[in-house]
Amino acid sequence: MLTIVSFIVAILILVSLHELGHFLVARWCGVKVVRFSVGFGKPFFTKKRGDTEWCLAPIPLGGYVKMVDTREGNVAEADLPFAFDRQHPAKRIAIVAAGPLTNLILAVVLYGLSFSFGVTEIRPYVGTVEPASIAAKAGFVPEDKILSVNGKAVKDWSDVQTEILLEVESRRVDVAVQTASGQQTVRVIDAAGTPDAGKVAKNSGNIGLWPFKMTTRLGLVMKNGPMERAGLKVGDRLLTADGKPIEQWLDWADLFRRNPGNRITIGYERGGKVYEANVRPDAEELPDGTLVGKVGTAPQRDEAWDKRVRYQYTPSVPEAFRMGWDKMTSYSLMTAEFFGKLMTGKASLSHVSGPLTIADVAGRSAALGIQSYLEFLALVSVSLGVMNLLPVPVLDGGHLVYYTAEWIRGKPLSERIQAIGLRFGLAAMLMLMLVAFFNDINRLFG
Q1: Burial annotation 237-267 (CB, 10 A radius, 16+ → b, else e)
Q2: Burial letters 385-419, b for 16+ CB under 10 A, else e
Q3: C-beta of residue 211 within 8 angstroms of C-beta of residue 309
Q4: pLDDT in tens, 155-214
Q5: pLDDT given at position 350
Q6: Is pLDDT at 349 greater than 80 in this prediction?
Q7: Residue 262, C-beta contacts closer than 8 angstroms, at least 6 positions apart
Q8: How far apart are CA 232 and CA 145, in angstroms?
Q9: CA–CA separation, 214 vs 127, rounded Å?
Q10: 129 exposure class (CB count in 10 Å sphere: 0-12, 13-18, 19+)
Q11: 19 is catalytic
């Protein structure tokens, strides 16, 4: 239920304000607006105020503002001066651009509000490297401090993830690091074209690199799970398995995963004393038919390491909104770069997400609290703003191209050219939607 509610709220906020940008500038430019709709399809709620009918429709994948336009049918003589297509190209450009720009401004406001509650930054240190992962094959080790990715300096863990994610599937990635001993070296990620690289998007950008360290002390023991049935409790520290010492949490996780239904004799420490227990991991079948073991537990983080990599502070309100502006511009550039790579084949279509993934992330971010949800809304708002500015017919950016060309030429582009562009735009967006739905289903249920 939380997922559904948080998704609907996100759509209502982001789509409504996008369309409100179009509406307000249209009215300011003297254009008559006959309908303002949030959602597509037959409206289930309508309310008439002045000349405008305000609607809610059942398909929450967008919205629209319908203006008086002679290209869409007969227009009363009295309304001709207020028709959209009778306005100067500069006015039409302003009306069309208002929606995406509203999304970008909204992102600044949302980020600013979130940052005013406090900011947590994760310094670019490697805490954990998953065995046999892309990161492990590149030679990363715990306590590497990442300095730059392909020559671009990084200041926090978010920068590291973004820069690697944009490049790892299409090219070699050179990551400059400073080791725990203070030496500088380069870790080379050369996974482009490999099956591992193809899984990066499905794994939410994970290449086996994490900023946090996990201890072998239990931070969670699920009720009625194998660990609880064996008598283990939160705070117990795992020592040995069948008499062999295991010092890394990932090795414990791998051991449990590889032994569904098999008995493992675990040595553990509690209150300074050492005990033994027999644990039998529950067997769970994956979609591909593979059986894996699960014991219903999770580790505690290394608190001393957390203090080293985690930096928390509360900026002033002006500083929070300046940071919001910086975050919006950096994400906008990153999103535009991603679409550029997508069109040139340098980025995988597997990174494209649709409404199912957005709904899933909306629910998870809302569960984490208001600050996380605000930043989720801001990120989606940036994506909507940048995507709508792309020069693709049927999107706002395509209309901006048409009206700019008309302004320069002194007359509109021919109907034939516009019709070809429209067909191309519809085909491109339909293809993108199909890919997004496929990725959603594959990511959530595959």
Answers
A1: ebbebeeeebebbbebbebbbebbeeebebb
A2: bbbbbbebbbbbbbbbbbbeebeeeeeeeeeeeee
A3: yes
A4: 889 888 888 877 777 778 899 999 999 999 999 988 777 777 666 666 666 788 889 999
A5: 72
A6: no
A7: 280, 281, 293
A8: 36
A9: 8
A10: buried
A11: yes
Cα distances (angstroms) measured from residue 340 to each of 303, 371, 392, 395: 41, 31, 13, 16
Q: Which residues pair with 209 in a beta bridge?
A: 129
Distance between CA atoms of 234 and 299, rounded to whole angstroms? 9
CA proximity to 380, closest of 364, 360, 365, 358: 358
Helix axes 355-368 and 370-388, enclosed angle (nearest 10): 150
| Residues found in the chain | 446
Question: Residue 113: its pLDDT value, please?
Answer: 95
| 138 close to 355: Cβ distance less than 8 angstroms | no
Give CA–CA dist 125/213, Å, rounded.
10
37: left (phi over 0), alpha (psi -120 to 50) or beta: beta
> Cα separation of 405 and 156, whole Å?
42
Has residue 135 got a pLDDT over 90?
A: no
User: By C-alpha distance, which of 222, 199, 321, 364 is closest to 279?
Assistant: 222
Structure tokens at 239: 């020592």
List Cβ neighbours of 377 (8 Å cut-off, separation of 6 or more). Answer: 10, 13, 14, 110
Q: Closest by alpha carbon to 274, among 239, 309, 301, 298?
A: 239
Question: 19, 167, 169, 375: which one is catalytic?
Answer: 19
